[in-house]
Amino acid sequence: MRRTVAFAGFAYVVTAVLLLTGQPASSEDASTGKDIFRFDTFGDEQLWTNTLHLEQAIANVPPTMALAVGLKVDAEALPASVIDALKGGQVNLSDPAVTRQLLSLNAVVGVIGKVTNGHLDSIGITCAFCHSTVDNSVTTGVGKRLDGWPNRDLNVGAIVALSSALSGAQKEVFNSWGKGKFDPRLNAFDGSTLISLNRSTFPVVIPPAYGLRGVQFETVTGDGPISYWNNYVGVSQMGGHGNFSDDRIHLTITQTPPDQVTPKLPALLDYQLNLQAPEPPSGSFDQGAAGRGRGIFNGVAGCSNCHRSPLFTDVVNGPNADTPLLHAPSETGMEAVYAARSATGKYRTAPLRGVWQHPPYFHDGSAADLAAVVNHYDTVQKLGLSAAQKADLVEFLKSL
Q1: Which end of the chain is more exposed for a tag (fewer CB within 10 A), N or C?
Q2: 144 inside domain
Q3: Tell me, what's the pLDDT at 75?
Q4: Are residues 99 and 223 in the same domain?
């Protein structure tokens, strides 16, 4: 049965050429896309304010609590005097009024608050909420933005659970997610209430949004091009004004105009495609061991059969540009529950550029580090690697 949900705006038309060719952005488009990524809520205040009433909770949250649940502060949005005060420990981080002041400065990464005379009127979120962090250059949780880096400190469930509109049982589910995870298959938003997509929750790690040029299929289950997922999340998860329809998952969301998103999506995609995977820090891996590991990766371990250079994925090697090459959970020893909730029922080979930056690994975070990843495949694929070979392989992965 198709689930039809009344929902407003965000009509998203996927243009194959735009989404799949990944043409370089003009400087004007990239700048516009940057603003959209960082500051555009797509009208999702209808979820975070009108339905969840989170502005009421956040208005009384001190900075210490906001930082504890993983929210970040953009130092470039702060006056020099405030930065000096933070460095000197002269800011009262236990005062909720400071949180409201940070919101009025548009300094809380991915959170847009309207503040009038010290009163928080509304709250919305942007793409940067989950897919940006900071470099901690001022203090922990405060620094320069790192767009595209997954915020693995962010406890989305705990933030949602602050809502007074949720039942105790709902709050328990959201609080079970933990840091750096989100379940995009639990609920969808119908413009006024949350509707259930599945009876139980299965949170997955927040993925990076960098290094996507040429990859084409963003999600771990390869449901569609990058902007398909932007559409799905923007409408059904962020709560933006928009439309989404996919018969494969029996979900249709329709809302009346105005369309607050479609004209902005090309620039948003261009900005995402220009987010480069970060280079590994100097001295963070053994170069000699990484060289040996490269040979193992391309040789006895057979990793390159699926993690094909230069993208280190085979997802683009499907029969045509619109069809990803995917793998059944049994092929790689992945669990099958989350895949069964997707549109494809399978998993994509993850691209590996910048893999050093975002532990834990696998969609469910079941591999704590790269050594656990190597051990998993050594067992599942019966590779018979020695301890030395495994160690060299880890160093190569750290070098990507």
Answers
A1: N
A2: yes
A3: 97
A4: yes
User: Do residue 172 and residue 309 come from a single domain?
Assistant: no
Is pLDDT above 70 for 366? yes
In the chain, the N- to C-terminal Cα span, in Å, equals 44
- Determine, yes or no, domain membership for 10: yes
pLDDT of residue 253: 92
- Distance set, CA 188 to CA 200, 236, 309, 359 (Å): 14, 5, 36, 27
Asked, for residue 319, whether it belongs to a domain, the answer is no
Read off the pLDDT band of 328 (50, 70, 90): very high
The reply to whether 267 and 291 lie within a common domain is no
Domain ranges, residue 268: 3-273
Judge if 185 and 237 occupy the same domain.
yes
Q: Same domain, yes or no, for 42 and 163? A: yes
Where among 273, 305, 336 does a domain terminate?
273
pLDDT confidence of residue 29: 56
